[in-house]
């Protein structure tokens, strides 16, 4: 099974962690444990293909700036998240994207721009068109999501998988370590 | 509440298991939560579906839930021995006594409740102290109640019980119950004195004082409250300011000592110890509950101080990474081999940090080395000898993100409270060698964890588990989960006391003197050192490619660096998103700029740079690719010393490095220097001169410094207050008397 490393980036408070938790666990699990090995792993089927997604969420460590390069180096696809209720979080993405392109040394990086918290339309300060414009400029896909209301969360990750497939369709499955295979079976 | 009975064979087995667990708990662990966590972890690996440890323990059985007004309890049935031996005396011999009778006790854990109910639960039904619960409660209550509210409830409960006693309507438990409440207050005061600080009047402490005067005059609690009050007011009146380190004469080291503060020829062990000392001070000051998701991840402008101790740790981490990046890149003219030596020096320091179990600075160094501007220097890395390259791989493996950072978690688990480092992977040849060489050190070390993992875990818990359950009751199970992480932090903080490291003020000065590059500056320098080899791909969208009426965005991209930097300044309340504490300290004016409209890129660089700090340098550095002048560097790094009459700095050469870009004029360079050197006042009151072998060249008042400097020599400068009428400027190349 092909593995996909997906990195979720964005300022603090945009709801990155909620997106991740919603996608991986479905929110409101009684016995949630973020410390076990597969807390952020999920197997999904995209276009008839089984995929193993490993989500790297930077939540809580946004301010450890020096570590971002490594996240970026290891990630194959990126979710750039802002909150539609905070203009600053939208503005911050410009720099993050620059950094990703610099680290990847290419202009073609699988990426989805996400305006989160679209359930809070009353508090909206970043217009949908603004998001679409930025995505257009980034040359990437744009979605508005709500982790809370479960709107378009899975679509974000599915789209990234498709983008990664498109970019490198023939990537050979790296044999996973025996340990993992055991656990998965 | 007691249910007698149960079958024998099963009991015998569970008895020995339980006893062993208890014994282990008694002699090795202070924190029950850690035991819990440890067990849980082990279990996790054994079976996939995992729940709380006591559910899996044969002697514990989940019975169900119980709802009362304002609270929900989880009820377990627990088998215990009918005649309990004294608690810590449990030893192997207990295994043999298996013929004892058993009873089954019903144990309730608060799952959720109102604040009132949660406060009541500090004591059990029998009025006994529920110590684990008290710990969890005090560590986490801030996320659902104010300090004053909890204190009101606690004292109110005591008073109710006391009143019942007077009317002799109280139960036999009520005396015990009140004792327990007092014990809680003791724990609270001892463990979280900061809750009671509330300057200037310490209302909670005053309230507690009144309470003890009425109900417990002359008690231990009473005197503790008085003592705390005295401490707080002394601190308020006493020496609050003045923590700035001045150069005491004893701190001046002979000049040759300063040599050892220049990479790569530094004493590795000493550097590692000093970094650890810095980390340790911050880590011990860390207030664990500031790491809670509800506080740390929801930090914003108004509440940034709520997480100040966490922020300090993060800043230090970044500061270390920045120093790695900077020392590797800052001198563009080094030979590749010399630069490789600097990498090697950092790896040697990192290796010592591994021995010291300082995972914070260790990760900071690895992150610095893995940062793009450093990591991409292929030629430099290729010159590292094989052993160093292996060492790097092995150290980096510790912090692999794979499997939810399993390697790192496991290592922390094993060594967190161990006396010294002794865990290596089977493939870690260099580390095996290292630990073999060192043997077991005579002294034991503490542990400093990389805090980020805890912060992520707590953020995730906060996100995934709701604050309240049905009927709006506070979800206390969430707090238990959070406490598992907090307890681990606390345990490590305790272990950090094992460090005994000397303080070297010269190291701190070195640390503070290192220039900080932001990621664009670093990348720019990196590309100067090793230009991109493959034909540079077109990274930015071509100018008019997507031109469909959104030119605004395009223009943001082409000048994005200056723009988005301003975004940071404008919008990031904490202001540390991308710079460390040092830089912030030295440029308090930074945050005030950036008021210009973000959609209008300030192309007039010289104008914009006139009203901001070094940050604006970004603009220039990043704008420069627009001019296809690839001939020389677009900026220099210059060193500026401040010369004053102050005797105190005599004998110590203190310089700051600043970036000088190709369109900066004298006033701007002076202003930048003043910021770095922490000088206030009018830039016109200072002169700047380049130090040449035989003379100084004072820069004319409005020269383009970049072109004016003499690059045949070192770029060392002196900034000094302008003396009235003594500086004669002639033609831009003034000779000045040598100072």
From TrEMBL, chain A:
Instruction: Share an example GO biological-process annotation for this protein.
Output: Rap protein signal transduction
- What Enzyme Commission number(s) does the record list for this chain? 3.6.5.2
Q: Pfam families, from UniProt?
A: Ras
Localization recorded for this chain is: Endomembrane system
Q: Which reaction does it catalyse?
A: GTP + H2O = GDP + phosphate + H(+)
Taken from the UniProt entry, a GO cellular component term is:
membrane
Query: Which molecular function terms from Gene Ontology are attached?
Result: G protein activity; GTP binding
Q: What is its main location?
A: membrane
The record's listing under CDD domains reads: Rap1
Q: What is this protein called?
A: small monomeric GTPase
| Native organism | Pieris macdunnoughi
From TrEMBL, chain B:
Q: Where is the composition biased (Low complexity)?
A: 555-565, 588-609
Residues forming the Ras-GEF domain are 267-532
Q: Does the record bear Ribonucleoprotein in its keywords?
A: no
Annotated InterPro entries = RA_dom, Ras-like_GEF, Ras-like_Gua-exchang_fac_N, Ras_G-nucl-exch_fac_CS, Ras_GEF_dom_sf, RASGEF_cat_dom, RASGEF_cat_dom_sf, Ubiquitin-like_domsf
- Which BP terms in the Gene Ontology apply to this protein? Ras protein signal transduction
Residue span(s) of domain N-terminal Ras-GEF: 106-233
Q: Where is the composition biased (Basic and acidic residues)?
A: 32-41
Q: Which CDD domains match?
A: RA_RalGDS_like, RasGEF, REM
PANTHER family associated with the record: GUANINE NUCLEOTIDE EXCHANGE FACTOR, RAL GUANINE NUCLEOTIDE DISSOCIATION STIMULATOR-LIKE, ISOFORM E
What is this protein called in UniProt?
Answer: Ral guanine nucleotide dissociation stimulator
Source species: Pieris brassicae (White butterfly)
């Amino acid at each position: 099974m092909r593995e996909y490393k997906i990195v979720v980036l964005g300022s603090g408070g945009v709801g990155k962690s909620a997106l991740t938790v919603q996608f991986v666990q479905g929110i409101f699990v009684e016995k949630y444990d973020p410390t076990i090995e597969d807390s952020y792993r999920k197997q999904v089927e995209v276009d008839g293909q089984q995929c193993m997604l490993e989500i790297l969420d930077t939540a809580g460590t946004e301010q450890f700036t020096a570590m971002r390069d490594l996240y970026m180096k290891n990630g194959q696809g990126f979710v750039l998240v802002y909150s539609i209720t905070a203009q600053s979080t939208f503005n911050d993405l410009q720099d993050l994207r620059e950094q990703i392109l610099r680290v990847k040394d290419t202009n073609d990086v699988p990426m989805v721009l996400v305006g989160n918290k679209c359930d809070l339309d009353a508090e909206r300060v970043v217009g949908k068109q603004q998001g679409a414009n930025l995505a257009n400029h980034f040359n990437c896909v744009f979605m508005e999501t709500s982790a809370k209301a479960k709107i378009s969360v899975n679509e974000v990750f599915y789209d990234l998988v498709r983008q990664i497939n498109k970019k490198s369709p023939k990537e050979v499955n790296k044999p996973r370590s025996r340990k993992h295979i055991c656990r998965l079976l | 509440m007691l249910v007698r009975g149960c079958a024998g064979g099963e009991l015998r087995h569970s008895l020995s298991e339980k006893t062993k667990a208890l014994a282990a708990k008694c002699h090795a662990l202070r924190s029950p939560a850690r035991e819990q966590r440890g067990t849980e972890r082990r279990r996790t690996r054994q079976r996939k579906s995992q729940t709380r440890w006591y559910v899996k323990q044969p002697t514990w059985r989940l019975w169900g839930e119980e709802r009362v007004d304002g609270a929900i309890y989880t009820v377990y049935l627990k088998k215990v021995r009918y005649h309990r031996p004294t608690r810590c005396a449990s030893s192997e011999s207990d295994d043999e006594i298996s013929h004892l009778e058993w009873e089954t006790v019903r144990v309730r854990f608060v799952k959720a409740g109102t604040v009132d109910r949660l406060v009541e639960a500090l004591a059990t039904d029998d009025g006994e102290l529920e110590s684990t619960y008290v710990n969890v409660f005090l560590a986490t209550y801030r996320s659902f109640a104010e300090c004053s509210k909890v204190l009101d409830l606690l004292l109110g409960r005591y008073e109710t019980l006391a009143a019942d006693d007077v009317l002799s309507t109280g139960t036999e438990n009520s005396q015990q119950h009140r004792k327990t409440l007092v014990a809680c207050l003791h724990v609270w005061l001892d463990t979280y004195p900061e809750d009671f600080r509330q300057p200037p009047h310490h209302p909670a402490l005053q309230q507690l004082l009144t309470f003890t005067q009425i109900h417990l005059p002359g008690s231990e609690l009473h005197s503790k409250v008085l003592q705390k009050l005295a401490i707080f007011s002394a601190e308020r009146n006493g020496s609050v300011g003045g923590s700035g380190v001045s150069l005491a004469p004893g701190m001046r080291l002979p000049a040759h000592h300063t040599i050892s503060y220049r990479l790569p020829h530094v004493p590795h062990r000493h550097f590692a110890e000093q970094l650890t000392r810095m980390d340790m001070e911050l880590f011990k000051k860390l207030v664990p509950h500031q790491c809670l998701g509800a506080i740390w991840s929801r930090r914003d402008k108004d509440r940034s101080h709520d997480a100040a101790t966490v922020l300090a740790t993060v800043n230090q981490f970044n500061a270390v990474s920045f120093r790695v990046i900077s020392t590797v890149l800052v001198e563009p003219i080094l030979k590749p081999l010399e630069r490789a030596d600097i990498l090697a020096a950092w790896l040697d320091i990192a290796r010592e940090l591994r021995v010291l179990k300082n995972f914070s600075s260790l990760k900071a160094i690895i992150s610095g080395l893995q940062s793009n501007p450093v990591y991409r220097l292929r030629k430099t890395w290729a010159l590292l000898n094989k052993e160093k390259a292996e060492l790097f791989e092995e150290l980096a493996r510790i912090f692999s993100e794979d499997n939810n950072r399993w390697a790192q978690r496991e290592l922390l688990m094993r060594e967190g409270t161990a006396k010294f480092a002794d865990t290596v992977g089977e493939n870690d040849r260099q580390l095996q060698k290292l630990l073999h060489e060192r043997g077991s050190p005579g002294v034991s070390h503490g542990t400093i964890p990389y805090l980020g993992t805890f912060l992520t875990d707590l953020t995730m818990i906060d996100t995934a588990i709701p604050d309240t359950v049905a009927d709006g009751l506070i979800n206390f199970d969430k707090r238990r989960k959070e406490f598992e992480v907090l307890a681990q932090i606390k345990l490590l903080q305790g272990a950090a006391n094992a460090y005994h490291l000397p303080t070297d003020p010269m190291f701190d000065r070195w640390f503070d003197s290192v220039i900080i590059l932001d990621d664009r500056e670093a990348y720019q320098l990196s590309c100067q050192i090793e230009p991109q080899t493959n034909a540079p791909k077109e990274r930015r969208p071509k100018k008019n490619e997507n031109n469909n009426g959104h030119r605004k965005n395009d223009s943001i991209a082409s000048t994005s660096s200056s723009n988005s930097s301003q975004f940071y300044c404008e919008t990031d309340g904490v202001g540390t998103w991308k710079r460390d504490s040092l830089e912030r300290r030295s440029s308090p004016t930074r945050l005030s700029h950036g008021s210009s409209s973000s959609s209008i890129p300030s192309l007039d660089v010289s104008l914009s740079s006139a009203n901001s700090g070094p940050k604006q340098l970004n603009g220039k550095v990043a704008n420069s690719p627009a001019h296809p002048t690839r001939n020389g560097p677009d900026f220099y790094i210059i060193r500026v010393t401040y010369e004053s009459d102050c005797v105190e700095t005599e004998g110590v050469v203190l310089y700051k490095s600043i970036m000088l870009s190709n369109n900066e004029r004298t006033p701007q360079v002076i202003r930048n220097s003043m910021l770095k050197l922490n000088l206030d006042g009018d830039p016109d009151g200072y002169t700047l001169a380049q130090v040449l072998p035989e003379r100084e060249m004072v820069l004319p008042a409005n020269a383009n410094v970049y072109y004016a400097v003499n690059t045949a020599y070192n770029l060392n400068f002196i900034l000094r207050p302008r003396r009235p009428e003594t500086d004669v400027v002639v033609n831009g190349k003034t000779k000045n008397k040598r100072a």
